[in-house]
C-alpha cells in the first residue's frame, strides 16, 4: 500500500514531485471522493483505492491527497459521491469512474464503449 498525506489544494490536477504525486480536484458539492490507481490501462478494477476524508483532505471545495512513491505515467481516475438532483443541476453517479478534468492525457482502454459509458451504473 502506498503511504499518503493530506496533500495540497494547488495546483489542480496531478503534480509530480521527487517524492510522489499530489492530486487536487475541485468538487464543490461532493460528499466523498475516491482516488483510484490502475496498474494497466485495460484493468477493469483499480489496484489501489484511496478514500479522501472530507475533513482532512479538503480545503474549501478542493479535495487533495499526496501519494508517496508514485511516478509519472501512473494511471488514475476518481469516483465522486454526492447528490443526484438534476432539478438543481447535480448529477452525481458514484458508479462512474471519472477522468481528471485537469489531466494532461487520457488513457483509453481497448474495451471502452462510449454508448455503454453514457448509461447509468458501473460500465
Q: Can you describe this structure in just a few lines?
A:
By secondary structure, the protein is mainly beta. The protein is built from one helix and ten strands, in the order ββββββββββα.
Describe the fold and architecture:
With 123 residues, the protein is mainly beta. 4% of the residues lie in helices and 37% in strands. It has one helix and ten strands; from the N terminus they run ββββββββββα. It has one helix spanning 114-118; strands at residues 4-5, 13-17, 20-26, 32-38, 48-52, 58-59, 62-68, 75-81, 84-85, 90-91. The longest helix is centred in the last third of the chain and has 5 residues, at 114-118. The two termini are 26 Å apart.
Please give the count of helices. Answer: 1
**Share in β-strands:** 35-45%
Cα separation of the termini? 26 Å
Structural class: mainly beta
What profile does the largest beta sheet have?
5 strands, antiparallel
Helix residue percentage? under 10%
**Quick check: average pLDDT?**
94
Give the tags.
123 residues, mainly beta, 5-stranded antiparallel beta sheet, 3-stranded antiparallel beta sheet
Amino acid at each position: 500500500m502506498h503511504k499518503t498525506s493530506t496533500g495540497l489544494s494547488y495546483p489542480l490536477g496531478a503534480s509530480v514531485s521527487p517524492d510522489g504525486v499530489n492530486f487536487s480536484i475541485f468538487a464543490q458539492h461532493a460528499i466523498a471522493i475516491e482516488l483510484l490507481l490502475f496498474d494497466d490501462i485495460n484493468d477493469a478494477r483499480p489496484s489501489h483505492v484511496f478514500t479522501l476524508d472530507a475533513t482532512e483532505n479538503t480545503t474549501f471545495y478542493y479535495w487533495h491527497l499526496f501519494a508517496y512513491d508514485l511516478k509519472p505515467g501512473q494511471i488514475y481516475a476518481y469516483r465522486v459521491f454526492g447528490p443526484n438532483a438534476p432539478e438543481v443541476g447535480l448529477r452525481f453517479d458514484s458508479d462512474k469512474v471519472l477522468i481528471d478534468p485537469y489531466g494532461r492525457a487520457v488513457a483509453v482502454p481497448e474495451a471502452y464503449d462510449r454508448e455503454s459509458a453514457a448509461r447509468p451504473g458501473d460500465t
